[in-house]
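Lab notebook: predicted structure, single chain.

Context: the supervisor wants predicted structures on file for every construct in the current expression panel, including those that have not yet been purified. This is the next one on the list. No modifications to the sequence; it matches the entry in the shared construct table.
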Amino acid sequence: MHNLHGFGLDKDHPALGAAGALVTYATDNLCAAPKNLRRIREYRSGGTLLLDPATMRNLEIFKSAQGTKKGSLLGAMDRTVTAAGARLLEQWLAAPILDLDELSRRQLTVQAFIEAPGVAAQLQESLKQVRDIARILGRLQNRLRNPRELGGVRDTLDQLPAIREFLAKLEDSPAASLRESVGDFEELRNFLSAALNDELPGNLTDGGVIRKGFDPELDRLRGLTTDNKTWISDLERDEQEKTGIKNLKVKYNGAFGYFIEVTKSNLANVPEHYIRRQTMVNAERFVTEELRQKEKEIVHAEEKALAREEELFKEVVERILAESDPLSSTALALAEIDLFVGWAQLAREWDYCRPELDDGDLLDIKQGRHPVVEQMLKADLRGFATTQSFVPNDTRLSASEEQLALITGPNMAGKSTYIRQVALIALMAQVGSWVPATACRLGLVDRIFSRVGASDELARGNSTFMVEMNETANILNNATARSLIILDEIGRGTSTYDGLSIAWSVIEFLHGETAEGPRTLFATHYHEITQLERTLPRLRNYSVSVKEWADEIRFLHTVVEGAADRSYGIQVARLAGLPGKVIDRARTILNELENEGNVLQQTLREPDAQRPEPKPRRKPAPLADSDIDGGGQLDLF
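Prediction complete. Output recorded below exactly as produced.
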């Protein structure tokens, strides 16, 4: 190929170097150019919902905080039974789409399988017998060939007639249209059934790949080998009768080939035409000219049979590769069927709804639930570890009206769970899945940003607070009015007033002075910020309610309108088991601090003209000579 203009790429494209490096790496490892790379395409992010690494980590999309699939969104959504289906789920979660027509197709396909559970169950049983055709084709094209992989292609093709028949039952639905993407391959299927043995070896040199009756020449060569080995068995019996040595054996090993073994107690009966080959502790080994000749015939026949089988194996591989394009299309269709059937099972089991998607700016969720936490709670219930069930909540956000939801409430009440579930529901909707809610309407989201949890990058010199600020800066610099943002406890990694100031300013920035802004859920313990509802028209206060009596609290996990007036941190500390003396002292200190904080509360509520003058800051004392070392450097320690 002279250039890449046919693919719409210029020779100066910035990604060509990276693409070339990948091809070079594959070529070096395969010792040949990869045969399954036939085209190059430019990926454009404009058609997908973007997720940065911090958001993937904070939302635990692919791995939980413990680094496992269990406890992640991937683990909660995966009901696939094939490797290709599981791989497709990961690909779709990594790049949710913005195409309303394609999303509708996926939703309607899931609906068809929900409404036909019998067909879905039959399909799933057939899919369990399907192998990873895409991976097998890639290996065959690059000379990484294993006889059992040919059996995988044959076994998969054997399932296609039943799969096509099941799909045909779903008339007038996108699920039925998938039938057109699943090829029939009757001729190839019959060819592989005739060519390959039922049980296949892991290595071609072991033989036994090609079925008896498929190739006359191979059958003839195998017959020679079988006949010669029968001759060896007859020779042993004849020599026993001629010599009178009842325990005479004709054996074989890789070093000496075929030989006659006689115990030392019978050496006197050995005929003169026996040629001594090897002396053992308790026996002697001999050959004869006749045995040598027959060994050559056997080895020659086996070599010819194996060579012929290798030729036939290559013909079978080429026959499969001739159908590589339709096989690849079928493999993708099977992966989609597996994924959609699994999502239908998930929706039936957990009572999911089909979300309404459009190009508007509204996000309206009725009785939404966290897809991962809900499943984990049910698993605990089955094990009698807890008596809790998940408490659903509503959410309403709009870029132009109710843009910012400021959520306050105590620790352990469920603020983080609530804001994450909204982001996960939006993500699930934009991969085409049904969602954990009784109703959901979503104006498509171009990016999801998440800043939750506490972490550090000490190896890179970043403290917990620096990581928090880096992630927040990324959000503020890249969010658009079509984005969805969830922020949890911005500013908590520094002093109270510094953190409060940063959180306050971030909210004002996200609200902005324009007519719309990114849909945002902002969870915080800074109750002072709730006063912003008076000045920011698109901000709404919400809180997670608790029930309190006799200094005890119970978390209700219900999000209600209005701001919380307390964080109940001391009560949570008591539940965690802090000593009573510590709790009592904390209450005393809290009362003192709250009394001193009245001035701050008054400042936040009063107009600028009525606010008291700030106290002058103490000027730092001038540096003394003792503060500077002999080299003229400031001593910081």
